[in-house]
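Margin note from the TA: students keep mixing up input and output lines. Inputs are the sequences; the output is the structure of the whole complex. Example:
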Amino acid sequence: MGVPLGAALAACGGTAGPGSTSGSGGGAKATYWYLSVQPQEGVRTRAVERFNKANPGGTITGTPFQNDAYKTKIKTAIGAGQAPTIIWGWGGGTLRTYVQAGQVEDLTSWFDQNAAVKDRLFPSSFGAATIDGKIYAMPCETVQPIVLFYNKTAFEKIGAQPPTSWGDIMDLVPKFNKAGIAPFSLGGQSRWTNMMWLEFLLDRIGGTEVFQAVFDGKKDAWSHPAVLDMLTKVQDLVKAGGFIKGFSSITADSNADQALLYTGKAAMMLHGTWTYGGMSQDGGDFVPGGHLGYMNFPPVEGGKGDPSNTVGNPGQYLSISSKATPEQKEIAKKFFATGVLTDQEGKEWVETGGVPIVKGSDAAWAGSKDADFLNFVYGIASNAKVFAQSWDQALSPTAAEVLLDNIAKLFQLSITPQQWVDNMNAVIGQ
Amino acid sequence: MTAFAPPARPGPPPAATREARGGVLPWLAVPALVIFVGFGVIPLLGVLFLSFTSWDGLGEIHLSGLTSWRAVLADPGLPHALWVTFLVMAASWAFQTPASILIGVFLAGRQRYRAVLAVLFFIPLLLSQAAIAIAYKALLDPNFGLGAGLHIDLLSQDWLGRPVLAFSTVIFVVSWQFIPFHSLIYQGGVRQIPRSMYEAAEIDGAGRVRKFFSITLPQLKYTIITSSTLMVVGSLTFFDLIFVLTAGGPGDATRVLALDMYKRGFQANLMGPASAIAVILVLVGLALALLLRRLGGRNPGASQLEGA
């Protein structure tokens, strides 16, 4: 028993990752971990295959992981010094923890030298890649704002129009409930789904500065009056029966919240644009038949926020492990410059219903069956004055966990808005 | 699940065993000891060490004295998680024990149909907890589950979305899985009770109920203690089933200590406080196991069969 145990411990102790076993004679190899699940996984895999074909001297070995498993796996691997050369991620607060631990490369000067790489991408995508003024990740893949989806058939049934303000939303709630349709679908057990409501309401009521103050760690930043107003509005909506029965036990991972919308059990759903692909795949005639409506979150009466603002994922992010060998780092940089978001990859993202974060990518979907939706997403992403990152991604994992916990309790009506503010003020800056 | 020591047989041990005890026997324990030290004691010491540090799982580990302990002990989440853990323990014990005893007594009969039923009852124990949780979650879904599908209003409750209901559902699912296991223990216990005791009682004119309360139950004393220890200590570590079923929700209604530990350590990146909770879990578990041993008298290996 002693021998394998010792071997396992020795393997843990080494700082060299599995990727650093680069052959001295043959071509060097970089490693790359990314998320599984089709159709996105295929796009990622094919991008790597194309790069390897073009660069037989320095190839990349890709390994796909399932979303939740990946989050734990990558954290453990980085902590143990076993990170892959290229680290796929969401940027923001998690990236900040990598930076603070000195685990990822500073790419600022590389982007200065390769301005062309930077200039072809959406400028908004760099926010979550930038920590204290330095760029630590290459934005990639697609932009995913959160939008208000609605079921056109449900609105026809009660003879109503989609909401154009918060007041409209509150008026629609009793009308839908009377018709036996839930006003909003919500996968509340996932918690970040509830959070999207707070993000939009706070932005529409108080503007972007309110959360910015929290993000900057200003003392008692949650005590802004707009926060209390926002929290009260959320609880008003819960109390009015705005969300589907049993929302707090529905998970977003199972796509049950999307199913509620396309089966007509719920009329509206606030969700990320990544759900479009799932709804067109599983919803039968719902998307192809034109029954899915979508719009940006409506303004709140008297609110200060710009109604063009949006939140969501401004992109996905690739970082380079600082523990990788110089050869591996070179391969990764070459991949960033020549292998990420090529025209072919962009085209494949469009086929999945996603908008690549490349300027002028709208040309790629002329004539596509999803052109309307893609135009809509492109419009939101390029017109937004501020494209904020989701709170739980922007904050550190520690603060995000407290935030999500308190949001769940807020929707459960087990804490008051004032208690929420007090609980959250206590962890500002952590 | 752990293996059980067979109940001690009455009478003195054979002389051969006694001689061997001084020689080869201790060495037979070495492999088990090595594994226990390697995978039990050393990680435990590691956790104890981590509880006096602050570490986010990524960077350097910094010694921070009692900071983690202070943070954990001052957090109102801890007494809440302890309370929920205790409730889960008490409720699942109170639900499982009577049910397991009754089923165990029933299955102890030698009739053929009971043997068939025993196999059927055993099935839930063969399933993985995660699979059970996913299946129940789908069945209990208020919009697409069993109740909604069959249009039975009674079944289309918000099972996992209301604190009390969610808690009860967790207890039910846990019991559904573990009652077969404990029934098996009781079945074995009942079968060891000598027939002669029942025959004597029958001659005295005792009925079925009287026999159960005056013979079966007292004779099962040590079986009850064994099964209760497993239930109580086991319920401290319930994690996967609750994690998949409710993720500790709604709010924190079903957030037991083990779940609290996971959330702090792996979701909030606070390895120090999470390790402190782990130490608390170990201490509570040890205390409970000791307490239950005391309840069972000084020598839990003893049998009551001598009195028969």
